[in-house]
């Protein structure tokens, strides 16, 4: 649970920093961003089902799509001088998944990419 909390809080403060750099007032950003949290309970349940079934269909979103989106956020953040290390680490996992042929699969597949890297059985570079 601390893993979810720590990475979520880091994502929230990073997003506030980026929104501020883009000229968005904190209260306006909070109103826009609050809806994202509502997506997580369903996503957690769906990911659990996909992980259990070892089937990662890309019906909602794909890893290739995530690669494109995170690249845009990294580029925007760095253009404002905002640290993007957390995002760069996440992109490294996404890039390994794409290199391993999982680009068309759903985001829950990233759990197996992380596991393979941690055990040294994957094809990742180990640079994240």
Keywords:
disordered C terminus; 128 residues; mainly alpha; single chain
Describe the overall structure:
This protein has 128 residues and is mainly α. It contains 5 helices and no strands. The chain is globular. The two termini are 22 Å apart.
Given helix and strand content, the structural type is mainly alpha
- Main sheet specs: none
Order of helices and strands: HHHHH
| Strand runs, count | 0
- Beta content comes to under 5%
> Over the alpha carbons, how many angstroms does the gyration radius reach?
16 Å
Summarize the structure.
By secondary structure, the protein is mainly alpha-helical. 70% of the residues lie in helices and 0% in strands.
Topology diagram in text:
Elements: H1 2-21, H2 26-53, H3 63-79, H4 85-99, H5 110-119
Helix pairs in contact: 3-4
């Amino acid at each position: 649970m601390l893993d979810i909390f720590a990475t979520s809080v880091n994502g929230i403060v990073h997003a506030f920093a980026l929104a501020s750099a883009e000229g968005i007032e904190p209260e306006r950003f909070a109103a826009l961003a609050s809806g994202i949290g509502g997506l997580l309970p369903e996503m957690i349940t769906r990911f659990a089902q996909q992980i259990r079934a070892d089937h990662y269909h890309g019906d909602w979103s794909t890893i290739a799509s995530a690669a494109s989106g995170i690249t845009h956020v990294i580029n925007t953040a760095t253009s404002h001088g905002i640290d993007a290390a957390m995002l760069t680490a996440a992109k490294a996992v996404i890039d390994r998944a794409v290199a391993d042929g999982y680009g068309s699969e759903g985001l829950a597949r990233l759990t197996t990419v992380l596991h393979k890297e941690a055990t040294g059985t994957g094809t990742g570079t180990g640079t994240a």
